[in-house]
Structure formats: C-alpha cells, structure tokens
Specification:
heterotrimer, A mainly alpha, B alpha/beta, C mainly alpha, A: mainly alpha, MetI-like fold, disordered N terminus, B: alpha/beta, Rossmann fold, 6-stranded mixed sheet, 9 helices, 39% helix
C-alpha cells in the first residue's frame, strides 16, 4: 500500500540464477515430463504422442538427410520469390497511396478490408493460372504478403515528418531520389514491421499451398508424414518449421532495431 | 446535514510531527521533506505553497497515506496514519475520473464501498453533484465533459465520502486561467458552506491568499517550513477584497519569500540539465 | 479544455468533392470488371481459366440456393463463435494471471508473443490426427492461433492502467480484489476488446482456411467442393462470397468495438 515514489534502493545482490530462468526451465521440464508420461501411458491413440526419444530420432534423421534440405530449399525459394514479388509491389503501392491522399481515400479501404481475408481460398484460382508447380505457391505467397506490406508502408508514409518531405522537394529531388533518400529511410520501422508481417503470411500461404497440392517442399513433407501416419516425423517437421519461422521473424525484427517480438 | 462531524470545535484535527522523507535516486540520496511540523485546525482552509520541486507533492502523499516510508508521524484526531485514512479525502492533480462510469456512478463510488443501498447512494450522490454545480449532468460520461467539469466530478466524489479533511494537490493546475478562477470560487463556497477542513497544495500565490486562512510557505528542496502566514482578511473573499491593498501586501510578502526559493530551484534545474546533457 | 463557445463550423465542401475519391475507387473497380469481361469474351484471356464476370455473377444465385450457402455460413459462424468464446475465456484469464503474477509475466510474455508469430495453422495435420476430420479440428486451430493476441492485449490493458486511477483506489483503501474489479479491469476493457477483435479476425482466417484445406465444414469447404468439380464460375462466385462474408464480419466487429467502448 505504501507508494515508494522514485525510489531506487541499492538492489540486493542479484541471485546467481534468476527466478525467471528457473520458472522457464521448470515449465519446460514440466511439459516434457507430462509429454513423456502421456506417451507411455497408452491413454491416447497409439502414436499421437510419440516418446521424446522417437521425436529426437526423427529430428536427427531429418537434419542428416539431404532430402530434407532439398525440400527446405524449394520452400525457401518459393517464399523468397513470394516475398520479393508481393513485397516489392506492396512497397510501390504503399508509397503511392501514402503520397497521394486522393488515391488513398479511393483505394486504401479496399486493401484494409481485403487484407484480413484468408488467401488460401484463392489457391484453386492460382492453380488454374499458374499450374500445379511452384508457380501457384509463389503466387499465393505473393498475394498474401502484398496486403500487410502495402498497408504498413502507406501508414508509414503518412507518418513521415512532413518537414522532411519539404526538404526533399526544396532540393528538387526526382521521384526515385525521394524514394531512396527520404521515404524509405524515414519509414524504416513501419517498413520492417510490414515486411515482418508479410514474411509471416507469405510463409503460411506458401506452406499451406504446398500441403494442399504439391510434390516438393516442407509442406509436402508434412502432409506426407500425415498420410503414412509417421507421427514422430511430423512432429520433427513441425518443430523445425516453427523454429525457423519464429527465428526468421525475430531476425527481421532485430534487423529493423525492433528487439521485442510484439503482437500487432 | 452535509457538514463533516466535528471533533473539538476549533481544535487541531491534524498534527504533522517532524516529517522527514528521503529518496534514494540514481544521483544519490535526495531529501524531499526536511523535518516539517505543523498543525491543521478544524474547519480551516490551509494552503501549502512552494516552488516546483520543493516536495509539496511528497508531502501530499505522506499526509494522504500513500507514502509511508518516512520519519515522523501524522496524526488525525489522535490516530497515527499508517496508510490512506478514512478521515482524509484526496483530490489529485491529474485527470482521475473513471471514464467507464457516468457522473453519478463516479460520485457514488465511495458510497458503494460502504455498502449503501443503491437508491440511497444515487440520492446522496445527487446532492454532491448539485453542490459542485453539475446538476443536469448526472448521466453523462466523463468523456463528454470538459476538463474543469471532470475535476468537479473528482471533487464531488471525494466529498461524497465526507472526509474530515479534504486534501488537494494542485487540482486546478491542468486547467486554463478562467476555469481555475471559477472553480476556485466554487471550492471556496463549498468549503465555507460545509465548514470543511481543507488542505490545498498549490504553487499559485494569488489562489492561496484568496482561499486560505493560513498559508504554509515551503523552501526549495530539501523542503522545510519557511514561514506560516496568517491571512487576516474578512470572508467572503469578494473581488473587492482580492483587489484591496491588504491582499496585495500578503501576495508581495509571500512572493518575497518564494522568489529566493524559486530561483534556487531554477538554477538547480539548469545545472541538472547541463549535467545530463554532458553525460 | 474548458467549455468554450462552439467553434465556427468548417465550410462544407460540395458533396461531389467529398465523395469523389470513393466514387473513383468504385468506378475503377467496375471498369476493371468491364475490361475483364471484354478481354475474356474476345478471347485474349481464356474463359477456361477465368470465366467472364457476368457468368460469375450469374452463378451466385445458383451457388447460394443449390449449395446451401446459408447453412454453411451458419456452420462457419458457429465455429468462429465457439473459438471466440474460448479465446475470450482463456485469453482474458491468461492475461489476468500473468498480470497478477509478475514472475509468470516475465517468464512467459515473450513466449506468447513468439507464439503469435508462429504459423500455428500449419500444424493442421497434427490436429487432424488428434481430433479427426471434424469441426473440432477447425475450432481448436482457430482457438490456438487466436489466443496470443487476447492474452497480450489483456496484459497490456491491465499494465497500462493510469497511475492516478490506481492512486484513487488506494486513497479509498480498496482491498486487492476491489482494486482489481472496480478499477483495473474496467480501465483495461477497451484494450481487452481490441485483443478480442484481433483474436476473432485471426480465428476466422484460420477457420475458413482449414475448412478449405481439410475439405470439411462450411464456407471454406464450399470453395474446395466447387473447385474439385471444375465448376469454374461457381468457384469464383464462392470465393467472392467468402470475401464478402469476411469483410462484413470485420466491419461488424469494428462497429461493435466502437459501441462497447465508453466515450473515450
């Protein structure tokens, strides 16, 4: 009840192992223990909860298998292409909408309301347009990541301190110079944030497309493991996928100087 | 019917004895309040005035019971304070109405805590709402009101708990000059009507002289009691009195005391800013 | 911010000027469809890849009546609402717990944020193994994917309570539980609603997506069905329909949130 105001007592000597670390370790160990228990209990259907050892072996197997890296490369390539196409067009559209108030009022609400729709439903159309190969996956990924990038960039553009734009105009910069020397540097944070979101949804879009119809890629491997009921393999795939996804997200965030991975 | 219950008429209702508050900041220990002792008389309007940074808000928190790590004691009606006391009602400087409750529910808040039945609460709250001049706004939400009106709601809420002592920390600081003057008049009117013991923390000399029976002048950090000034002006303090020579003399006298403290404060802040910039 | 005389009303722009952007946007969209119609009829774009817009619009009626669209819509809606109730209960409770126990917050907040960035929906084969090809798979994926924003926003709302309001509570000597229920929780509600809205959006996206992928459920399955039947116009129509539903859903959520917030 007593308010201590701007008090910063000399802190007591920090414990060797922080309580936070202890709690985290306890939670992780607890989860693993319960998992292993369930795995051997026989309560759940056969292999739904495989033993940690089995999962471990599957992980080792994957990581040592060139086939895995081949598929990883395929998927990574698709995501990179999707990000390039969707990201670049998103940046261009975002800049245009950010600069021109009239166009923004005309079109931005379409982007805003179309953005949160599930893009996977466009997949049949993508297949018709781009075939059953990587093309349709890239297309879906690009479509997915276009929206968050465009919206973030448009908002970022509007957030740029107006005086900076006036400075650029006073030096009679061309449009391309304005983009490279003023717009992009000034909205570094919203841009990186938009790319981070775009990466996330491009990843999801591409991978889901792979699970639906493909013969290559990580998504394909996951659905394969499902179809032969190779559960340890499926868990291993998912673990690796989540590690990569969360890692990539954190990496992009760190690049942009945003240290905390915050939910939007 | 609305006046707070009185202990000994005219006696001391609050006794602050040797209050000493020290903070440990990043730059070393800072004494906010340096052995202050004073009394508050039943029914009086007492202002505490001092330059910015002199520790008046710290004093506010000590008396209000929000800050208990200090030396010295504060006694209300003989009882030592060890936390927020039910005899003391606090009005804060910042915007403090509950935005999710309408005016009536805001004002009835302390009554809710005592378990008063709803109908009685609303009726009681209504009286305080009228007292502060917000009749007709019972069902509005704070978001629909101006800053001055919101402060009046906060005041009504505190008054509704019928505290023996009303403790206010620069409640008009965030308002523009005209609103401040009008609200000041209102508070004074209410105080006289209820015979409410009031302790006002302020930096505004004119306000203090106009409203108070006595004024405690504080020094700059470490905050000590520099002087107690008895304001011997008749009530009600009309605009005639405010414009009078006697009034002007009190203001000049207090400003004299404060000027030295205030400039010390300013120099201190400049040195601080330079130091921060350099590091 | 004292009460002042009402400001002179801004000169009203002519109605045409005010609506020009919106009209331009609409006109562009219409023009686009007309262009597509022409190109397809002329043969520049194969009508076996993209049916003419007129045909798509024409099949709307057929799709709605023959495919029991209303029933499917209710099914999807039911899944969303179930997931919505679950995320509200568990998400808000989780946020409250994390706020109450600081150690828990310090240990787990970054984990929850990282989870928000994780592609949960990609684990749908795993959910299928556990829950079968059923509505529960769909609901559970929606639940898991949508939980993090609710927890994080609840935590944000509670932590962000203005200090002065907490002090008001202390000055009235409120007990811990009174302080929570009378001050902190009501103060946090606007932010909590933002979290629930975000969660519902995540839930809908994932639910429709999974319905499509596992070919079960309501609207998502509709698209899949029509695509597998090579009903081109129908597929496009169904996609349009789903977009329409999700746009209306999001607009409704925004309206509800604005209505529920007390005047800020």
């Amino acid at each position: 009840m007593a308010e201590t105001g701007r008090l910063t007592r000399t802190a007591p000597a920090a414990p060797l192992i922080s309580p936070v670390l202890l709690l985290r370790a306890a939670i992780i160990l607890g989860v693993l223990a319960v998992w292993e228990f369930l795995s051997h209990s026989g309560w759940l259907y056969r292999d739904v909860v495989p033993s940690l050892l089995a999962i471990g072996r599957a992980l080792a197997d994957l990581l040592g298998n060139s086939n895995y890296y081949f598929n990883l490369g395929v998927t990574a390539g698709e995501i990179a292409a999707a990000l390039a196409i969707g990201g670049l067009s998103g940046i261009v559209v975002g800049i245009v909408l950010g600069v021109n108030r009239f166009l923004a009022k005309a079109f931005e609400s379409y982007l805003y309301y179309l953005g949160p729709t599930p893009k996977i439903i466009f997949f049949p159309v993508m297949i018709m347009w781009f075939g059953v190969g990587p093309g349709s996956k890239v297309a879906l990924g690009a479509l997915s990541c276009f929206f968050p990038v465009a919206l973030s960039v448009a908002a970022g553009m509007r957030g740029i301190d107006k005086v900076l734009i006036r400075v650029g105009k006073s030096f009679r910069l061309t449009t391309m110079q304005m983009v490279w020397k003023i717009y992009l540097p000034a909205m570094r944070h919203p841009l990186i944030n938009g790319v981070r979101l775009g990466l996330g949804v491009a990843l999801i879009g591409t991978l889901l497309a792979e699970t639906k119809l493909s013969n290559k890629g990580i998504g394909f491997m996951i659905i394969q493991a499902y179809s032969v009921f190779d559960m340890p393999h499926m868990y291993a795939q998912l673990i690796l996928l989540f590690v990569v996804a969360i890692g990539a997200n954190a990496l992009v965030g760190r690049l942009g100087g945003l240290d905390k991975v915050k939910a939007k | 019917m609305l006046s707070p219950s009185a202990p000994k008429a005219g006696g001391d209702i609050l006794v602050a004895d040797d209050i000493y508050v020290r903070f440990d900041t990043a730059e070393g220990p800072v004494t906010a309040v340096d052995h202050m002792s004073f009394n508050v008389r039943q029914g009086e309007f007492l202002s505490v005035i001092g330059p910015s940074g002199c520790g008046k808000s710290t004093l506010f928190n000590v008396i209000g019971g929000l800050l208990t790590s200090h030396d010295g004691t504060v006694k209300v009606g003989g009882e030592t304070i060890a936390g927020p006391h039910k005899s003391i009602g606090m009005v804060f400087q910042e915007e403090s109405t509950f935005p999710w409750r309408n005016v009536t529910d805001n004002v009835a808040f302390p009554l809710e805590l005592t378990g008063m039945p709803k109908a009685k609460r609303i009726e009681r709250a209504r009286r305080f709402i009228q007292l502060v001049g917000l009749a007709g706004f019972e069902n509005r939400f704070p978001g629909e009101l101006s800053g001055g009106m919101r402060q009046r709601v906060s005041l009504a809420r505190t008054l509704a708990s019928e505290p023996k002592i009303l403790l206010m920390d620069e409640p008009f600081a965030a308002l523009d000059e005209q609103t401040r003057l009008l609200l000041g008049d209102k508070v004074l009117q209410i105080q006289q009507q209820l015979k409410q013991t009031t302790l006002l923390i302020t930096h505004n000399i004119t306000e203090a002289v106009q409203m108070s029976d006595r004024i405690l002048v504080m020094t700059y950090r470490p905050g000590k009691l520099k002087r107690i000034v008895e304001i011997d002006l008749p009530r009600p303090r009309t605009s005639e009195i405010v414009g009078s020579e006697a009034f002007g003399r009190y203001v000049a006298e207090i400003w004299n005391d404060l000027r030295e403290e205030a400039s010390r404060g300013m120099r201190d802040e400049e040195a601080h800013a330079l130091h921060e910039h350099a590091s | 911010m004292s009460a002042v005389a009402p400001a002179r009303p801004a000169p009203r722009p002519s109605p045409l000027f005010a609506y020009a952007p919106a009209l331009t946007g609409l006109a562009t969209v219409v023009a686009f469809f007309v262009l597509m119609e022409v190109l397809i009829r002329v043969g520049v774009i194969s009508r076996f890849i993209v049916p003419p817009p007129s045909e798509i619009i024409g099949s709307f009626y057929r799709v709605i009546t023959e495919e029991h669209v209303f029933r499917r819509f209710l099914l999807t809606l039911g899944e969303c609402l179930t997931a919505g109730v679950m995320i509200t209960v568990f998400g808000v409770a989780g946020g409250v717990l994390m706020h109450r126990y600081k150690l828990l917050q310090q240990a787990c907040e970054t984990w929850v944020a990282a989870f928000a960035a994780a592609p949960v929906v990609l684990a749908y084969p795993l959910f299928m193994v556990i829950f079968g090809r059923s509505a529960w798979t769909i609901i559970m994926i929606g639940f898991v994917a949508a939980l993090p924003p609710v927890i994080l926003k609840t935590l944000e709302g509670l932590s962000g309570t203005r200090k002065v309001l907490v002090n008001v509570g202390k000055s009235f000597n409120l007990s811990g539980s009174q302080q929570f229920w009378k001050i902190m929780f009501p103060a946090a509600l606007p932010t909590i609603f933002v979290g629930i809205r975000l969660g519902l959006i995540f839930a809908l996206i994932n639910i429709v997506g999974v319905e499509f992928l596992i070919n079960y459920g309501g609207l998502g399955q509709l698209i899949n069905d029509l695509a597998e039947r090579y009903d081109l116009a129908g597929t496009y129509a169904a996609i349009c329909f789903v977009i329409l539903v999700s746009v209306v859903f999001f607009m409704a959520l925004e309206k509800v949130e604005r209505w529920l917030r007390p005047v800020d």
